[in-house]
Design goal:
Belongs to the DcuA/DcuB transporter (TC 2.A.13.1) family. Keywords: Cell inner membrane, Cell membrane, Membrane, Transmembrane, Transmembrane helix, Transport. InterPro entries: Anaer_Dcu_memb_transpt. This protein is mainly alpha-helical. It has one domain. Helix content is 68%, strand content 1%. It has 20 helices and 2 strands. It has a two-stranded antiparallel ribbon. The longest helix has 26 residues. The protein is globular, with a radius of gyration of 22 Å. The two termini are 40 Å apart. The mean pLDDT is 85.
Length: 437
């Protein structure tokens, strides 16, 4: 088993270094080694999870193509420019809401330069709002009803009488409070901008330009607004179907029994319908939708889940007896330790959904209660730990003052403190909630 684990880790590390679809295709190579060299039987690929993500990405991409994302950024810019002194508290709420609505943290790219510019103009150290804003966009993944991670968690816990609302009732308040805790801790990070040596050096050397960033204009305001309304309506529909099971239709089977429609199919149908309506109502070119950043990032996530999660699932399934025998007594005594395992795996996999898909079968097999797994759900937000995730790199590049940075020892970077605070508070509150309720 240890030799198999070594190959799994090598595939993950090399795939992460390759970037893009590298993580997914290296997972496929690792799966080939597990199957043809070690003789493990492949488990079923996570088709339902992948199709749900494809449907959500299709709708989000159409909204972006119609100008909906640009419109949301304009709204965010107006809010931040009206309240510049509160930017460290408001910016994480903006990126949290963006991700909650869209289901992907990559929408934060569009608002990060606005945050950096408003902070600089107000003479607030940009590191403070940018650091927690990036973390908030990650935390919201585990609160969004249409994110790949939430969809994966729901599909794997559906057999345990867990509904979407059961997940959201814990994940939304916990992650939101965790983000606010991280924001308050960020209020006094570092020196004031006027005293920061790197900023002063850039000003003295004329490296700091005075060019002001403005959010991209919306070409067709009416079409953009319609796309946002349609997308949000589909998201609300998913929440209603997920929380009120009586709304889901029943179908007769050939043997006379009845079967209720699965949430996976509802998510896929509603999101594909939303994508179609956006294209039809706003008269947006479908080709434009696949050329946007949301589609590209989303498809990378699908490939990652396809390869990495399938490889991880096969490894765990093939070694379940040995894994249970070695760690079952520890996890039974201290089930919260499984959260630490989720955190470490998310650092390696750079994906909340891939982490859930790879690790949750082990948690279920170890007898950890579904509500404990939901409470530990925010622990999959650990990929800020190593500062090479795209949104992390983007935030550093957007900060013209140089205050948002990676330290000499790599791990002492601008996102570590807010990330640890937000994740730690979210998980702690989740554990408290399941004890109280």
């Amino acid at each position: 088993m240890l030799l198999q684990l070594l190959f799994v880790l090598i595939a993950i590390i090399i795939g992460a270094r390759l970037g893009g679809i590298g993580l997914g295709v290296l997972g496929g190579l690792g799966l080939a080694i597990l199957t043809f060299v070690f003789g493990l039987e492949p488990t079923s690929p996570p088709i339902d999870v992948m199709l749900m993500i494809v449907a959500v990405i299709a709708a989000a991409s159409c909204m972006q193509a119609a100008g909906g994302l640009d419109l949301m950024v304009k709204w965010a810019e107006k809010l931040l420019r009206k309240n510049p002194s509160k930017i460290t508290l408001l910016s994480p709420l903006v990126t949290y809401i963006f991700t909650f609505i869209a289901g992907t943290g990559h929408v934060a790219y569009s608002v990060l330069p606005v945050i950096a510019e408003v902070a600089t103009e107000t003479k607030i150290r940009p590191e403070r709002p940018l650091g927690i804003a990036v973390i908030a966009s990650q935390q919201a993944i585990t609160a969004s009803p249409i994110s790949a991670a939430t969809v994966a968690l729901l599909s794997m816990l559906s057999g345990h009488n867990i509904s979407l609302m059961d997940i959201l009732m814990i994940s939304v308040p916990c992650t939101l409070i965790g983000v606010l805790a991280g924001a308050f801790c960020s209020l006094h990070v570092g020196k004031e901008l006027a005293e920061d040596p790197e900023y002063l050096r850039r000003v003295a050397n004329e490296e700091f330009t005075s060019d002001k960033y403005r959010a991209k204009g919306v070409e067709n305001h009416h079409a953009a607004l319609l796309s946002v309304i349609i997308f949000i309506a589909a998201t609300i529909g998913i929440i209603l179907f997920g929380s009120m099971t009586e709304l889901r239709p029943w179908f007769s089977l050939p043997d006379g029994s009845l079967r209720q429609m699965q949430m996976a199919h509802i998510i896929e149908i509603l999101m594909l319908s939303a994508a179609a309506l956006i294209l039809l109502v706003t008269r947006t070119d479908g080709i434009k939708a696949v050329q946007g950043s949301v589609f590209s990032a989303g498809m990378q996530a699908v490939v990652a889940i396809f390869g990495i999660a399938w490889m991880g699932d096969t490894f765990i399934g093939g070694n379940m007896a040995e894994l249970k025998g070695s760690i079952e007594h520890i996890v039974t005594e201290m089930p919260w330790l499984f959260g630490l395992a989720l955190f470490v795996m998310s650092i390696l996999l750079f994906s909340q959904a891939a982490t859930i898909r790879a690790m949750l079968p082990l948690g279920i097999a170890l007898g950890i209660s579904p509500y404990m797994l939901i409470a530990l759900f925010p622990a999959v937000n650990g990929y800020f730990f190593i500062p090479n995730y795209p949104t992390v790199v983007a935030a550093i590049n957007f900060d013209r003052t140089g205050t948002t940075h990676i330290g000499k020892y790599v791990l002492n970077h601008s996102f570590m403190m807010p990330g640890l605070v937000a994740t730690g508070v979210s998980v702690a509150l989740g554990l408290l909630m399941i004890q109280l309720f």
